[in-house]
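Friendly challenge for the regulars: who can give me the structure tokens for this chain first? No prize, just bragging rights.
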Amino acid sequence: MRDKRRYNFRWLSGILMLLLLLTGCSKSSESDENDEPQPGKPVLKVYVFAPDRPVVTRDDNGDVDASVAENKINNLHVWVFRKDNGTLIGHISLNNVEISEAGKEVTMELDDDFANAETKPNVDVYVSANVTNTSCGLSLDASTTKSQLEDALIKESYFGVSNLIKTVPADGLPMSGVMKDKPVKGSNNVYQVHESNEVSKLANVRLVRAVSKIRFVACKSSTNPDVVTVNSVSLNEGVLPKEEYLFLDNAYDLTATQKWKVKNDNYVAETLLVNTVTEVATNDSPASYSWDGTMTGQAYENLIQEGIDEGKLTELGTFYLRESDKKLAGFIDYTINHTEKDETVTTINNKPAFGMKTDGDFSRNHTWIVYAYFVSSGDLIMGMVEVKDMTNSENASQSVYNW
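First reply, four minutes later:
Bragging rights claimed.
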């Protein structure tokens, strides 16, 4: 009987040991993927919104939906620092984050000294998404200081022209968000960031994509017998900076006079974006794919994509580039071979220019479409859907936000 009890004890002990090991493995796996606050510790809740989830309602008919890949948040870092001295009081890292229309509530452990302080100083909050050494040349973690975040640069080799990004990278598009000088309120070890001490309203950090997209699209009239070759599409020298700051304050402030933040001491040389395209698509009405001056940004995006899908338009190239404080401009080099009835061939070579209207128009989190088409006369007609401030009432261009 004693032996049987001893056997049962050993068997139960083995089961308990196995359960403990399994539980430990499970928790270890979870901690590898996401940081989680320890039970009983003071926590701080921060609310994060995705770039395509506006926090405020804006009178803007230019929104363009992002693709699934452009929306994807593979990793998210949130840092909270004291406003007065820059001391880190909380950090969390999460993987594969889904952000709903209501935003994402991020809960992190809070520094004990800060939580226990009778009077709490205001805080600065920094959020990054999809920012890795592979995608941006930046390695950010819990040891990254506030000054390092302020100085963080997306380097020349990332989202510039030395290594053209034509599709969304595996790590996703880099995003960032920052809010500064906000009070922290709460009780019973649960605290939240508020808009102000006077108003009981939770503050939100809204991410902004740190890069923009530009698409080049072309076609010719089906009644045009000329042979059209697009030799190249290039950016001018000195219009794209070599480096861009990751974080931008007040990215969605409509009253801000500057909506970009680049290191403006060095710019790239003239750059080839598109190599030779010997055949562009034809259709019966190229002009019908021009922006009509009234359709929304999304409607025009849909029209262009429909034309590409149906083989009526040729997409010369799509590029994800860092923003610029200059007037982004370039040219399309094309050749037309026109054959007369007597079989005489006339070759015409032109390099018409395209460009934004003003310095800084090509700011982060926007999309541009450059559409060029050849009519029966053999001339190139070019139009652009351009980003403008929403306070601008001109009808000559269309705001295209939040892709």
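The first strand starts at residue 43 and ends at 49. Confidence is low (pLDDT under 50) at residues 1-33, 53-61, 386-403. Your move, everyone else.
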